[in-house]
Design brief:
heterodimer, A: alpha+beta, 4 domains, elongated, B: 106 residues, two-stranded antiparallel ribbon, 56% helix, Helix-turn-helix transcriptional regulator (chain B), WH_DNA-bd_sf (chain B)
């Protein structure tokens, strides 16, 4: 037959594809015969068109329907036992590959399980309250002193009662305020977190009581509810109803009677408390009718039928009707804009970053970003493990081509083979799954530390989580097993039995997957290096003052000028103490008028010793001094940023008006060099000092810190016998500013190490297979005079090229992510080329080490033995 | 009396198979059909009809007669079975009977 007389090839292929095999011969024959005739009668174009039309017209049920085979089909369960036996035997025989697959998958699965646990905990926050859907926190949107709008979850004492009075949908309100107090139990004193709540606290929130009537425990103004754990700490028993706890209030201790014992607060609760006191006590002692104060939490409960969207606008109405006068007054005094009130659902508090006001008894707010990033990393690692499985199984399948051929010859169909290979991946996954569970149990404490959680394994008994784990198992088995099952079952039995079967084509899939793996690993590696450098920068950067051997001793709220002076005298003779200074506790901010405009700045009261003790250098002027008695009333010291923002050329002698609402002019006597009084996450702000006292800041002599500390403690106990001694080394406090970053550093390091580990064991497996396949080639090359190093290069070059390529792929993403992360910091390192270079070299060295073990082993084999083998 | 239904198109195809007397295969039947009835018939329709006829047991088939034009593929030759020719006869008889009952006009 003339070769040119052929119908369009694609139409022929289409026919062959859809037509049932038992009909194909006659139909195709008829079609070709007709085409042949038409070609001679009507020409090529017409014949082709007719042919295509005719092929399409054969898409009919009878051609699509496959003939069922004449012999009995094995049912799914018949071969199941055999599949399991073969799977286990196969794993036993290829220990290296099974180990690689199982190790990788179990690491990946364990990561995912931990993240499930984590995420489940995150979304379960506050769901145990019966009225959870009806409880809201009153929030406020406020203009800040610079005119920007910010949102807060804090309100004031008057909001709750006013709203309930005016809005019929409000069923109840609970105010909540936290504080720190010194408490006395019998004769011992402790520094203790206290929470002050309205008396209906236990009817609004579902915290169970071990003893006491939930409706009445807080109705007395001198009542206190204690948690079981605290009762055990303070009294050694949980039967403490009727006992007395004394609270330091100003100069005296006031007694409160324990009326109830509550169960410890669950860890997935935003509200955390140890001791609960009646808010009524504060409301009576420090009444406040101002609407423009934002310092406590106010929770409200809506009626079951009420819609919070319709209630929300009423809040502003109530505010406007009650506080118009107050707002006017405030605006005359420089308050800008109008605050708006809103409702924030209780269930959103934990993960809401908008109203980031997690305080006053609320704890553990967390950014959902954290969950996303952790999940991303876990999925990365599991994906890398799945890729290992796919690559190794596909590459290894050449060895199993004979088995596949035989199975097909004795009647196994493709569906059965697919089931067999899927079964193998599930067996592998199952073993990995069990190992992963064990791993989770083992690393849970470490993970809790990293993720700031108190997760326990008992969580797993929960139905949804168990379901999710099962889903994870099935999905992993399917992802890992699907592709190999599909490819392996497609082997042609004749080819696989009659000759050495090799993969045709260039294996783009394996290459692509290896590149994907190493790109992920390289990405994490670069990010790790960036995080390390930034962390190093944060912890070693010169702060502008010295925080070494500096102890902060808390004296409690208020001005303690007499006490501070006594301390100074007592410690003056102590050899280990270099200097004693005083500064008020914490960091306050305030506003004042400077050159006719308003300035927002940080404000501290310090004594004349503070600047020299911390070694903060003066840029201009002088420090506070005892020689100038007027300093206490009229003088201030500011920092360089303050001078810059005030626009002063010659700051000494300039004045600042109305600091802290104190209507008089204060004169600048000195300027300190800028130093980082806040963490390095924030820019240096304007800072203003006045003379005053507060807590103690004591500089100890190096190498005598322990002795100095003992001396301070003794003096403390002598002078303030009723207070617990609390101190902190400033360098440790500063380091704590970067706790979150330290945790990120650990997380990202673990992630990078795991991903590189899993990628490398995969690469290791692939190298073994490729060297095995090339044993004879290597033998022949050696016979012809190739050196061992040439052979090793030959074997590793291919993989190294892939790794290099992956690295290049990872660079842009890593660069972008690093920049985004660094933007969180006011003071940051530059992402520089050496970080990428270091990551590149590291990853290359690791990959090279992995590959070359096998390559060198193969290159030194005696060619005589490798050529004889077959 | 249970009878297997024979469609109009199937009947014509079956007749042609009978006419071609052992030489009938898909393409030839199609061409013969077009020649005899003058209507255009698609090859796939004929194949489908033959398929149904064979399922009903009216035709019998065997493979053979590969030619070069067909790229060496064999033809499926159809012959009418006893059941097939009986079915044709029955249809014929019913028609004759009905023609006989027709009143003579004009």
């Amino acid at each position: 037959m003339n070769a040119s007389i052929r119908p369009p090839k694609w139409a022929d292929q289409l026919l062959a594809w859809f037509c049932a095999p038992h009909l194909l011969e006659e139909i195709q024959g008829d079609l070709h015969e007709r085409y042949h005739k038409q070609r001679q009668e009507r020409g090529k174009a017409a014949a082709d068109a007719a042919y295509v039309g005719c092929v399409l017209s054969f898409i009919r049920p009878f051609t699509l329907k496959r003939k069922s085979p004449p012999y009995i089909q094995a049912s799914f369960t018949d071969m199941l036992q055999n599949y399991f036996i073969i799977a286990l035997r196969h794993m036993k025989r290829n220990k290296v590959f099974s180990t690689i697959n199982i190790a990788g998958l179990s690491v990946g699965l364990a990561c995912c399980m931990l993240i499930f646990l984590y995420t489940k905990d995150e979304v379960s926050f506050d769901r145990f309250h019966e009225k959870k859907d009806r409880i809201f926190r009153v929030s406020a949107t406020l203009p800040d002193p610079e005119g920007n709008v910010f949102k807060t979850g804090s309100t004031n004492m008057i909001v709750g009662p006013s709203l309930q009075q005016e809005i019929p949908e409000m069923e109840a309100y609970v105010r909540m305020s936290s504080d720190r107090h010194v408490i006395r139990v019998v004769t011992k004193t402790f520094n203790q977190q206290t929470l002050w709540v309205d008396q209906n606290f236990f009817s609004v929130f579902s915290f169970p009581l071990l003893s006491g009537n939930p409706d009445k425990v807080l109705s007395d103004i001198r009542a206190v509810v204690i948690t079981e754990q605290m009762a055990l700490t303070y009294f050694g028993t949980s039967k403490v109803v009727g006992k007395t706890i004394e609270l330091e209030m100003g100069e005296t201790f006031e007694p409160f009677t324990v009326t109830g014992v509550a169960k410890n607060t669950p860890q997935n609760s935003s509200i955390q408390f140890d001791l609960l006191f009646p808010y009524q006590y504060i409301a009576e002692r420090f009444p406040d009718k101002e609407w423009l104060g934002f310092y406590i939490n106010t929770f409200v409960v809506l009626h079951p039928q009420a819609q919070y969207q319709t209630v929300e606008p009423k809040l502003d109405q109530v505010f406007m009707s009650k506080a118009t006068e107050e707002l006017k007054r405030a605006q005359q005094n420089g308050f800008k804009g109008v605050p708006h009130f809103g409702l924030q659902p209780l269930l959103q508090i934990h993960l809401d970053t908008e109203y980031g006001d997690i305080r006053n008894g609320l704890q553990y707010g967390s950014n959902p970003m954290y969950s996303y990033i952790l999940s991303g990393i876990a999925i990365f690692i599991l994906l890398i493990a799945c890729i290992n499985f796919i690559n190794l199984t596909t590459a290894h399948s050449l060895k199993r081509s004979k088995e596949i051929g035989i199975r097909k010859v004795v009647g196994g169909n493709r569906g059965q083979l697919i089931r067999q290979f899927l079964n193998e991946s599930f067996v592998c996954c199952f073993i990995a799954f069990v190992l992963a569970l064990l791993m989770v149990v083992l690393v849970l404490p470490f993970f809790n530390e990293l993720a700031n959680k108190r997760l326990s394994f008992s969580y797993l008994l929960d139905g949804t989580l168990a379901g999710a784990y099962l889903g994870l198992f099935l999905l992993t088995g399917l992802i890992a097993g699907f592709y190999p099952a599909f490819v392996l079952s497609g082997f042609n039995p004749i080819q696989s039995l009659s000759k050495r079967y090799t993969f045709s084509g260039k294996n783009y899939l394996t290459k692509g997957l290896v590149i994907a793996q190493f790109s992920l690993a390289a990405f994490l590696m670069i990010v790790t290096i960036v995080v390390y450098s930034q962390f190093d920068y944060l912890t070693t950067k010169d702060l502008g003052y010295t925080d070494e051997h500096l102890v902060h001793v808390s004296l409690g709220r208020g001005d303690h000028s007499n006490l501070v002076n006594v301390f100074k005298n007592e410690l003056a003779n102590e050899a280990s103490v270099e200097r004693v200074a005083s500064k008020d506790f914490g960091q306050n901010f305030t506003i004042a008028e400077v050159e006719g405009k308003e300035l927002f700045f940080a404000f501290s009261r310090i004594d004349e010793n503070y600047l020299p003790t911390l070694q903060i250098p003066l840029a201009k002027g002088r420090n506070f001094s005892k020689n100038y008695p007027a300093d206490a009333e009229n003088s201030i010291v500011v920092n360089e940023t303050f001078v810059k923002e005030a626009g002063w050329k010659d700051p000494i002698g300039k004045t600042v008006y109305n600091v802290n609402g104190n209507a008089k002019n204060l004169t600048v006597i000195g300027v300190v060099k800028d130093y980082h009084f806040l963490s390095l996450k924030e820019k240096i702000q304007p800072l203003l000092f006045r003379l005053g006292t507060g807590d103690l800041w004591i500089k100890l002599k190096p190498a005598q810190t322990l002795k100095g500390l003992q001396a301070i403690e003794q003096t403390y106990h002598k002078l303030v016998p009723y207070r617990p001694f609390e101190f902190a080394f400033m360098d440790e406090v500063n380091r704590k500013n970067y706790e979150a970053e330290a945790k990120w550093k650990q997380i990202i390091t673990v992630a990078a190490m795991l991903s590189i580990f899993v990628s490398c064991i995969g690469l290791f497996g692939l190298t073994i297979l490729s060297t095995e396949r090339r044993t004879r080639e290597i033998g022949i090359r050696k016979v012809f005079g190739a050196s061992a190093s040439q052979i090793a290069t030959l074997l590793s070059a291919h993989f190294i090229k892939l790794v290099l390529f992956s690295f290049v792929m990872a660079v842009p993403a890593a660069w972008y992510s690093s920049r985004t992360w660094l933007e969180n910091f006011a003071y940051q390192i530059d992402v520089s080329w050496w970080m990428f270079a270091l990551a590149g070299v590291l990853i290359l060295v690791i990959a090279l080490a992995t590959v070359s073990v096998q390559a060198i082993k193969a290159s030194i084999i005696n060619p005589a033995s490798s050529l004889r083998s077959e | 009396m249970k009878r297997t239904y024979l469609g109009e198109f199937e009947e014509v195809v079956l007749l042609i198979v009978a006419v071609l007397n052992g030489q009938a295969y898909g393409l030839m039947i199609t061409e013969e059909l077009e020649k005899q009835t003058g209507r255009s018939v698609s090859l796939s329709a004929v194949h489908a009809a033959l398929q149904r006829l064979e399922e009903k047991g009216f035709v019998h088939s065997r493979m053979g007669g590969a030619t070069q034009e067909r790229g060496g593929r064999r033809k499926r030759f159809f012959t009418v079975t006893v059941a097939g020719s009986r079915a044709l006869q029955e249809i014929q008889e019913v028609r004759m009977h009905l023609w006989g009952m027709m009143p003579k006009s004009g």
